[in-house]
Target: homogentisate 1,2-dioxygenase
Amino acid sequence: MAPMTKFGVDDPNQYLEGFGNYHSSEALKGAIPAVNNTPQRPPLGLHTERISGNAFTAPRDRYMQTFLYRSHSSLLHDEFVPLEVTSGYGPQTTAAPAQINPNSYFWPSFPVPDQAHWITGQAFLGSNGDPVKKEGTAIWVFSVTEDMPARHAFSSLDGEILIIPQSGTLDIQTELGFLVIRQNEIVVIPRGVRYRVSLHNGKPCRGFVCELFQGHFRLPDLGIVGTTGLANVRDFQVPTAFFDGSLVNGIAKANNNDGEEWAIVSRLAGKLWRCNQKHTPFDVAGWHGTCYPYKFDLGRFCPLGNLLFDEHDPSLYTVLSARHHGAEPGTAVVDFVIVPPRWNVAKDTLWLPYYHRNTMQEFFSVIVNGQDPAFAFNDTGRVGNRFAPFGAGLHGAMSTHGASEIEMRAAQRLDTSKPTKMQTDGLTAFVLETERPLVLSEWAYACARKNPQDKERLSAKM
Model:
């Protein structure tokens, strides 16, 4: 059997494959012009538009751009105005970092709204930079119980976003095509790309968003490891073009429903803004380039490990990394790390991380990788949109962290002379390691436990 997740939800979409590859996709044959990106009269009556993900003068191997061929320019909209919408979590969840101290934080669960869609269902947890200065990153918690309102699309103007479902499935329509994102998958959507989020079969979905204010997520360098292992280039999936319309007498006509307005909601400097337009934002008949959404099945991650003795650093489990090019080599703005099912074989070695302090901040939680509907954490009747089995935790820089005393004693009693399959309980741990301290919102601070011993109490209950 291929090493991938056997999902409980089917994905009907076709995808392109390859992380960072130059891709091309047409929803209508002939939509992409040959050779000349900007012909005087593009095919099918389309308009040429480009999304540039970085400076024009960036090195060729880092440059991210995509040409779109669409029936209407996205210029055609009215003025952006502040969107005064109350989050499903309440007004206290405004995107204002406020609290920092040396404590570890633990959230056994998060208070979540009874009803919320993608726009109202995101709560700001904290950040460690400034989206206006294009520094650092932010973390949001989401809990979605309903589709986005009809004819609404969303985008982040602050940064590239990494969506990590803890449980549930999202159907995402982007300007470049459709993606289905299931638990044990992640998706990255570039800054500025518009998309719409719906639920699969109406079932709630909860999880986390990491918003990257500077640079882009990339695969980590493998160095002495060689050319394969961890997350491989070929296993990333990219959507294929979808045109919300049809071809009429050789002209691409979008489904504009007699001028019914679309609302484009965008996040800038942590605040929501809205403009209206009289055409669908999903009128791209073809695209080509390197700046696009992509998804990855975490079941395809190839973990590398210790075959004899001692503990290896958690950097060995890095899936994606956003490099900090202005800092010393090896420094990342944020790393996305998972601890997946794997074999442990190191003899006479503690099979848990030792207690340690380091320069990075660690925000951690779990993903439900078990797909059986009968699995305890997939039972929506019992769990609902409550974060389970665990909300999240945060260890600050140089804050001592590690296993609880209960877990440590159990690990010390293990027979390490026999290979053992680890993490077989239907859960995958993940960590967002950030360079700078995460400053929490008042909402996140108020609902957190702040005593490092709370982790032991939590472990005793799980």
Summary: The helical segments are 380-383, 405-412, 442-446, 454-461. The chain has a mean pLDDT of 92. The radius of gyration is 22 Å.
